[in-house]
Amino acid sequence: MRVSVIGAGYLGAVHAAAMASIGHDVVAVDIDAARIARLQAGETPFHEPGFEPLLRTGLNSGRLRFTTDLSEVATARVHFIAVGTPQVAGGNAADLSYVDAAVTDLLPHLGAGALVVGKSTVPVGTAARLAELVEGAGRGAGLAWNPEFLREGYAVADTLKPDRLVYGVRDAPGAAVSAAVAEQLLDEVYAPIVASGTPKVVTDTATAELVKVAANAFLATKISFINAMSEIAEVTGADVTTLADAIGYDERIGRRFLNAGVGFGGGCLPKDIRAFTARAEELGRGESVAFLKEVDAINLRRRDRVVELVLDSLGQRRYTGRVAVLGVTFKPDSDDIRDSPALDVVVRLRGLGVDVVVTDPRGLDNARAMHPQLTYVATAEEALADVDVAVLVTEWRDYRELDPVAMARLAGAAPTIIDGRNVLQPAAWRAAGWTYRGLGRP
Ligand code: UDX
Q1: What architecture is the 2-202 domain classified under in CATH?
Q2: CA–CA separation, 101 vs 54, rounded Å?
Q3: CA nearest ligand 1 atom 7, residue
Q4: CA 15/CA 48 separation, integer angstroms
Q5: pLDDT over threshold 90, residue 173
Q6: Cβ within 8 Å of residue 87, ≥6 positions away
Q7: pLDDT band at 175 (very low <50, low <70, confident <90, very high)
């Protein structure tokens, strides 16, 4: 099938390459000419395991191309909208200007029977509003909402082997593309995924929009729940990691996403829970998700706690001691620094006058571009030289597997390790001469 993808960011670029790998003829469009040129040359603008081979295979097959010219989408039957919905400046709501512009600009290029398929995360009600725009354009085209759930670091697998497919379709009377036809088109697009038995949920657009925000709100709540337990553990001498293991054995609770630490960041969870709160307030149901404000607050307090632990560990050495932060991305296997707890901690320490260096296997270029004032070093070994306080904030495998004995030889006298992700073995680090401090661990 001829398919277009509007927006070649993280989601759009991966989606386009994945659709080409399934056998579709894909054109991806973005207004960022530099990004399009890189993608068309087979270069990945971000670090994502498995994406580069998928991109190159797609380009070489002739089934995938990138362009800045929107008119090239005219022959496509299905148009995916994959542009960003960032947080508005000075507020909690989602900025829908990119989505609105993408759909409006697409209208003159829609053929009869074409289906516009929203993938961006949007406030509930957006699809219905956009559907009226598409249907009202009189081109015989329709709209559906098909949220994605991809995680950075697993984007390719999450696109080609998702946990579920969600189709939000419209059964509006007189709609140019009926709900049944929209479902059929999406089935055709995702044919191998559907054939492999992936659960499929076919529903209305409002439910589809809500599925996405509800899923992210639940995940954020799970993380903040265990981080709240961390706060209690800290004043009682309990160990939150053992607590998580013990409650996680209950299958109704489950152990995944119960890792206490410096909390969640990234381009999705923080802004999605805020946008959900803002939308619920608009709908007069602010109280229904008021707890998400608490989820956000707990999450941000964990960053305060890490900064507090560093200052406490430095003690008298506040302006003379050396601090090394391991990790700058919001999670491992990504070069993404959007709303990164790690970067926040570094910026705040620097702002407090602390002598801090930071390292990361993949995120330094992005961090340097945004915060040129910080001190970056290439390796953990360089970072830990003569260090008084080391802080692990992004749990890259390289850092999880550091040898505490070898690192103690590099570090200054009486060093402290702050384990911001609770992934190190306290006994091994203590035995090697470090003072170990975790989050919610004695
Ligand atoms: C998330 C959702 O998982 C995904 O389904 C959605 O499509 C986009 O948002 P992503 O932002 O890639 O994906 O990251 P995710 O793996 O969910 O992690 C988010 C943050 O939570 C990271 O900062 C991570 O370090 C943190 N986290 C995760 C915890 O602090 N504890 C955990 O137990 C799990």
Answers
A1: 3-Layer(aba) Sandwich (3.40)
A2: 29
A3: 149
A4: 13
A5: no
A6: 93, 94, 95, 270, 271, 274, 275
A7: confident
pLDDT at residue 352, rounded to an integer: 97
Q: Is 150 in the pocket of ligand 1 (CB under 6 A)?
A: yes
Paired tokens of 386: 């003569």
For ligand 1, whether the C-beta of 68 sits within 6 Å is no
For residue 172, the model assigns a pLDDT of 82
- Take residue 96 and report the two structure tokens written for it: 């829908």
Was domain 213-296 assigned CATH 1.20.1440.20?
no
- CATH topology match: 213-296 vs 306-438: no
Give mean pLDDT, residues 298-322: 97
Atom of ligand 1 nearest to the CA of 222: 33
Whether the CB-CB separation of 265 and 338 falls below 8 Å is answered with yes
The residues, any chain, with a CB within 8 Å of residue 105's CB and separated by 6 or more, are 70
For residue 425, pLDDT over 90 is answered with yes
What pLDDT shows up at residue 207? 98
Q: Hey, where are the domains in the chain?
A: 2-202, 213-296, 306-438
268 carries an active-site annotation? yes
264 CB under 6 A from ligand 1?
Answer: yes
Is pTM beyond 0.70? Reply is yes
- Ligand 1 within 6 A of 147 CB? no
CA pair distance 54, 71, nearest whole angstrom: 25
Alpha carbon of 181 to ligand 1 centroid (Å): 34
- The pLDDT score that the predictor gives to residue 174 is 75
Percentage of residues in the chain having pLDDT higher than 90: 99
Q: What is the mean pLDDT of residues 318-322?
A: 96
> 306-438 has which CATH code?
3.40.50.720
Distance 264 CA to ligand 1 centre (A): 6
pLDDT of 401 strictly over 90: yes
Give the pair of three-digit tokens for residue 293.
């404000």
Sequence-distant contacts of 240-246: CB under 8 A, at least 24 apart: 240/422, 240/439, 240/440, 240/441, 241/422, 241/438, 241/440, 241/441
Identity at 244, one-letter amino acid code: A
